[in-house]
Design goal:
The protein is mainly alpha-helical. It contains nine helices and no strands.
Length: about 200
C-alpha cells in the first residue's frame, strides 16, 4: 500500500470516525451517564469490533451479502429495531446518580456486535474497501486499512467520550441530564434515516 494511499485512508478514517453517528452519540451519552473509565469497554468494543467487521467483510464475507441480499436487508431491519430499543432506553434514563445505581454502560461484546447492525459502520467499511484497496495486493490492502483504522479511528472515538465526561461535570441538575438523554435518543432515531430510505421501494 503506497504512502499516499495510506495518508488518504487516515484522513478518511479520522473524518468518518469523528463525525456524528450512532456510535459516537452512544459513547458521548455513556460518558455523561457513567464517566470515562466505565465507558472504556464500550469504546474498545466499538473500535475492535469495527476492525473485525472490516477485516471479515474485506476478506470475503461481503460476497455473501452480495449473493444473498435478503441477509443484508434483514440485518438492516434488525439494526433499525435495535437502535430504536437503544433510543428508548436512553430516553428513559434518569439522573446520573440513578443511572450509576441502576444501569450499566454497554459491554465490550455488545458494542462489538452492534457494529454489524450499525448503518454508518457499513457505509464506512464498504467505502473503505472500495476506495482504498489495491487489486494487485488486495489482501495486504485489507490488512493495512484495518490496522490503520486503529490509529485514525480510536482517538476520534475517545474525543466523544471525553466530551461526554466533560459535560457530566456541567450537567449537575437531574432535569438537565434527563433532557440531554432525551435529545440524544432523538438524534439516535434520526440516524435511522439512511436505513429507512434504503428500504423504501423506488
Amino acid at each position: 500500500m503506497s504512502p499516499d494511499l495510506m495518508l488518504a485512508f487516515m484522513g478518511f478514517a479520522v473524518v468518518n470516525s469523528i463525525t456524528p453517528g450512532p456510535n459516537n452519540m452512544m459513547l458521548m451519552t455513556s460518558g455523561v451517564n457513567f464517566g470515562f473509565r466505565r465507558t472504556m469497554p464500550h469504546l474498545a468494543g466499538v473500535n475492535l469490533g469495527f476492525m473485525l467487521m472490516m477485516l471479515l467483510v474485506g476478506l470475503g464475507m461481503g460476497q455473501i451479502f452480495a449473493r444473498f441480499p435478503i441477509v443484508y436487508t434483514s440485518m438492516k431491519v434488525l439494526g433499525a429495531l435495535y437502535l430504536l430499543w437503544l433510543a428508548w432506553k436512553i430516553a428513559r434514563s434518569g439522573p446520573i446518580e440513578d443511572g450509576e445505581a441502576a444501569g450499566h454502560p454497554m459491554t465490550f461484546l455488545q458494542a462489538a456486535a452492534f457494529q454489524w447492525v450499525n448503518p454508518k459502520a457499513w457505509a464506512m467499511v464498504i467505502g473503505a474497501i472500495a476506495a482504498f484497496t489495491e487489486p494487485s495486493a488486495y489482501v495486504t490492502s485489507v490488512l493495512a486499512i484495518t490496522a490503520l483504522y486503529l490509529i485514525g479511528g480510536t482517538p476520534s472515538s475517545v474525543v466523544w467520550v471525553v466530551f461526554g465526561t466533560a459535560m457530566r461535570r456541567l450537567l449537575r441538575h437531574p432535569r438537565q441530564v434527563i433532557w440531554f438523554n432525551r435529545a440524544m435518543a432523538l438524534l439516535l432515531v434520526l440516524s435511522l434515516w439512511p436505513i429507512v430510505s434504503d428500504l423504501i421501494p423506488r
